[in-house]
Specification:
The protein is mainly α. About 50% of the residues lie in helices and about 5% in strands. The protein has 3 domains: about 5-25 and about 45-145, no CATH class; about 185-345 and about 435-445, Rossmann fold, CATH 3.40.50; about 355-430, 5' to 3' exonuclease, C-terminal subdomain (DNA polymerase, domain 1). The chain has helices spanning about 5-20, 25-35, 50-70, 75-85, 95-105, 115-125, 125-145, 190-200, 210-230, 250-255, 270-285, 295-310, 345-350, 355-365, 380-385, 395-405, 410-430, 435-440, 460-470, 470-480, and strands spanning about 185-190, 240-245, 285-290, 315, 330-335, 340. The chain has a 6-stranded mixed beta sheet, sandwiched between helices. InterPro entries: 5-3_exonucl_a-hlix_arch_N, 5-3_exonuclease, 5-3_exonuclease_C_sf, DNA_polI_H3TH, FEN, HhH2, PIN-like_dom_sf. It holds the Pfam family 5_3_exonuc.
């Protein structure tokens, strides 16, 4: 039987104190923050597949009502408290526990506080009550995902910039899984093309056309999709190659200096992007880009759609650390060149923050590669240490500004630091609400066929493309792999 005062005390102290008591070590303090954030970011983790999320919420609500023995307004803390703890409840009554849950709604009186509900769950020992509370958290997740909003493209009105919170993608215990769903592979086309260009010799076709990046890209696609298909290892995966448009996007509206320091695309690489797209056609791969957004945003939106659709195996092929924000137990990152695969634990070990707090860390430490300025004097290690003590970025920024004030009396520097970090947070967080059908022409992942090289001259088309650009060795290896002359 749970002590009701324990839940109330946990509520009063908040999760920050709770996590701090659990561990003082950096990694141990960060891991619970990732694992215990049951909710998806209320501002950013919203899907264009709101119908699927709404159905998920409806299914969870039905289960909640079955357990409780009656229908009730799940979102109201006072009602939920009565269901759990009143004498009329199907559960064992717990006098005084209503106050704990009702307190959860005080910041927003008409909604259950996820933070407090998580704390109540931690203190609860009754299995039946724990099951119902966990289901309510899942219901809140699905409702948040179904709610549209967040980032919009450049040139459109910015109505809601995401607040500081947790994961962009629901985890595997938060939305229904479909074991029959096809594995999804989301390829960072720009990364692969650039990596191929710099990793291959400066090759040219007989007519002088540079093809180094093209050859490298085709080698990578063979390794990534052709070989597993030909060997029968994987014949169900859906593959989408995502490219950047190269144009300004909504982040440039927020910060005109965003990525302006980057060097120009090498002259020999420019024409190869078109060739790489033609290579994707030869492979039978879907290619998309999102005007007004970055390729990373398109990948984020596709990953969220895949998970909401029940996919349990989503692979993002890239080495871009920004994309590590998307990693969950369903979504992993693969560096196809090194074979390194990142799950949640690997992201924490590599970047010193779990996926749900990586954007916070980058906001404080800054990101020189994107021209993002954070808090002066804070690198990744120092940023991780301050984040480990706070549940939100805002609280961490308060500590940073307080530290600055103690060292030097400079209100302008304090204000500038706060502004830089909060702006950086807006710049680094990925957008999961790209309107794919309107911006990219892709109706949905469901419309993407599984990768194959059977029938309709598919293999012959690919081999002809390779020979056209004088990839004789690769063509020979591919024909042997496919058993085609």
């Amino acid at each position: 039987m749970r002590n009701p005062s324990l839940a109330a005390a946990t509520v009063a102290l908040g999760l920050t104190t709770f996590f701090a008591k659990r561990s003082s070590r950096l990694v141990k303090a960060l891991v619970p923050a990732a694992c215990r954030h049951h909710h998806v970011d209320r501002s950013a983790a919203r899907s264009r597949s709101s119908l699927g999320a709404s159905k998920s919420a409806g299914g969870v609500a039905e289960r909640i009502h079955q357990i409780a023995g009656r229908e009730f307004d799940i979102g109201k803390p006072s009602v939920l408290a009565k269901v759990l703890y009143d004498e009329m409840s199907v559960f064992n009554p717990q006098a005084g526990s209503k106050a704990a849950l009702t307190a959860a709604g005080r910041p927003k009186p008409r909604s259950v506080s996820v933070k407090t509900l998580s704390a109540v769950l931690e203190a609860e020992r009754d299995p039946a009550k724990r099951e119902l509370i966990e289901l309510v958290l899942r219901w809140l997740d699905a409702k948040a995902v179904a709610k549209r909003g967040g980032f919009v493209a450049a040139g459109e009105k910015v109505v809601d910039i995401p607040s500081w919170s947790s994961r962009l993608i629901p985890d595997d215990d938060e939305l229904p899984a479909d074991p029959s769903a096809s594995p999804v592979v989301l390829v960072d086309g720009h990364y692969i093309t650039y990596r191929s260009f710099h990793g291959m010799p400066h090759l040219s076709a007989a007519d002088g056309t540079p093809v180094g990046a093209l050859v490298g890209f085709c080698n990578t696609m063979n390794k990534l999709v052709v070989q597993p298909w030909a060997e029968g290892v994987e014949r169900r995966q859906k593959v989408v190659v995502v490219f950047d448009t190269g144009d300004d996007n909504f982040r440039h509206d927020l910060s005109p200096s965003y990525k302006k320091h980057r060097t120009e695309t090498p002259e020999a690489l420019r024409p190869q992007f078109a060739l790489v797209r033609k290579a994707c056609e030869a492979y039978g791969l879907e290619t998309i880009e999102g005007p007004g957004y970055e390729g990373d945003d398109v990948i984020a939106s596709l990953a969220l759609e895949a998970v909401i659709g029940g996919a349990t195996n989503v692979t993002i092929v890239s080495a871009d650390k920004d994309l590590a924000q998307l990693v969950t137990r369903r979504v992993n990152m693969l560096n196809v060149y090194t074979g390194e695969r990142l799950g949640p634990e690997e992201v924490l070990a590599k970047f010193l923050a779990p996926p749900g707090r990586l954007a916070d860390l980058l906001a404080i430490a800054g990101d020189k590669s994107d021209g993002i300025v954070g808090a002066e004097g804070y690198g990744p290690v120092k940023a991780a240490k301050v984040l480990a003590k706070h549940e939100t970025l805002e609280a961490a920024v308060d500590e940073i500004c307080s530290t600055i004030s103690k060292k030097i009396e400079d209100p302008e520097l304090v204000a500038k630091t706060r502004e830089q970090v909060l702006l950086a947070r807006r710049l680094v967080e990925l957008c999961t609400t790209v309107p794919l059908d309107r911006r990219t022409g892709l109706k949905s992942l469901a419309s993407v066929p599984t990768f194959h090289l059977e029938g309709e001259g598919a293999a012959e088309r690919l081999l002809a493309f390779m020979r056209r650009f004088e990839m004789d060795e690769l063509s020979l290896r591919t024909s042997r792999l496919l058993g085609v002359n």
